[in-house]
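Appendix B, record 7
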Amino acid sequence: QVQLVESGGGLAQTGGSLSLSCAASGRTFSRFTLPTLGWFRQAPGREREFVAAISWSGSSTSYTDSVKGRFTISRDSAKNTVYLRMNSLKPEDTAVYYCAASRYTGRYYDFDKRKYDYWGQGTQVTVSS
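Structure tokens (predicted):
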């Protein structure tokens, strides 16, 4: 089994910044089994949507258009941790943010939540106007 634990959510003002972390653990977590880590978010009454994803090496990243230039995904594979730095936050960024791990590689799959095998419990991000 694989466990994903998010941290770092909270309250920010419009234009502010927050950083999220997600620590992965488990005997079956490796670059060969779950090479891609991603962030998704879900606002009340809305479907869970893709935010960003990163390959094992960190050389390949994907972002949804609404966060490009504002959010940065990174990872420390030695620590099995993925990060999401969120700058220039907007009220519409308010959501529960989930970390997820996928066996698939490549941008074709990054955006598809159905391709992710494990999910964290989520962390709340609230941006006040």
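Remarks on this record: The chain has a mean pLDDT of 95. Residues 112 and 121 are 18 Å apart (CA to CA).
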